[in-house]
Amino acid sequence: MGRQRTKPAPTPPTTTRGRRTRDALILAGREVLEQQGWSGFSPEAVAQAAGVSYGTFYTYFESKDDLLHHVVRSVAGEMFASSLVPPDTVEDPYARIVESNRLYLRAWGQASKVLRLADQGGAADEGLRMMVLEIREFYVGRAEKGLRRLQEEGLANPRLNPRLTALALGSMVEQVAHSRDSLDEPFDDEMVLDHLSRLWAAAIGSDLQGIRSTAEDKGDHWLLNGSKVFISNGILADLVIVVARTTPEGGAHGLSLLVVERGMEGFERGRNLDKIGQKAQDTAELSFNDVRVPKENLLGELNGAFVHLMTNLAQERITIAIAAIAGTEHLLEITTEYVMEREAFGRPPARLQHVRFEIAEMATECAVTRAFLDRCIADHEDGKLDAVHASMAKWWATELQKRVADRCLQLHGGYGYMTEYRVAKALYDGRVQTIYGGTTEIMKEIIGRSLLS
Fold this sequence. Notes:
The protein is α+β, with helices and mostly antiparallel strands. It folds into 3 domains: 93-194, no CATH class; 208-303, Butyryl-CoA Dehydrogenase, subunit A, domain 2; 312-452, Butyryl-CoA Dehydrogenase, subunit A, domain 3 (Up-down Bundle). The protein contains 14 helices and 7 strands. Strand 1 and strand 2 (221-232) form a beta hairpin. The longest helix has 29 residues, at 313-341. The radius of gyration is 26 Å and the shape is globular.
């Protein structure tokens, strides 16, 4: 038998002509993927679409999997061609953020088809997963840079962690893109982004099977009845996503997500509930009395609410945990400054051993918690964060915030009880952290079941 010829390993193009040929193949690959799907995505088809020979394809790419990665990279480049902060022609800092999210949302819309088709291919799954992570990292990097710029200009809270804020912002905009795609675009980008992108206002708590709101199929619409309470931003929101029972006998798997718009007949907002903390955020009661919801306002799959909501539950809980540790560290910082500067009995409280021990204990607890959260964040970015570790993070970090707030207020003495001091406000604002997103008791139940089942 003769020797089998092997294709030489492709090398990056070094000439302008070579780069143009490679770019033409990448563009052709994207077009073939969009028009013919994964089944038609082949070196022969791509070479033909690019107007080059079959052999030329292998000059630049090892295989169609290799080309697939380059296609996804090119999509990523288009998605994030603009920084979080648009050109300085947009002067209003809020308008900058809205414009940036508009660019990102539009880019996700352009890229979603390519990503879905590539994922359907079933080739190089791990490599594709890394590409998607790379896309998100690209955006987060630009977003982080933009937030730092806003901080330098004095237009953003200097205590914000740009990295964590960018991760949260990116996640929110991706959910807008996903929702829009699921709804076949009944709402345009301007409408959604003009009202702060989207609001998850379905107050489901932790008991999905206890949902009592119902949506009856009336042929061309759903007839929605029920009520919700403790809805964050419920007064201001123009769109709310409601969890309703569409199949009475289906249990948790008989629930669906419906998008309800401001102005729909029968959709009423109650009073702005009076909370002990977080006064800047409205919290409302919502009622739905024979609300006619168009069939196209079904978000996601029919009876698929349970799956949709569970998909990002770990992310929600790790986000709350991150906010909790950030708030705790801030409390420790201002308390440390206070005990070093305050004079009591002729000397700063920081010179008392008891105070030093208190600060040392809180600082150690914060450091240990931060280390665990860093691991959870890394797992989340790799797609490996599970419900148990997210529950551990949420329980521990929020309970730590509650304990530290109480201890820090004590170290402030009488001044800590005055509302003009930040430590007093932090005590009340942070108290709800152990309640929403799943109470501490629910978190422990999830952990306990996993260990003892």
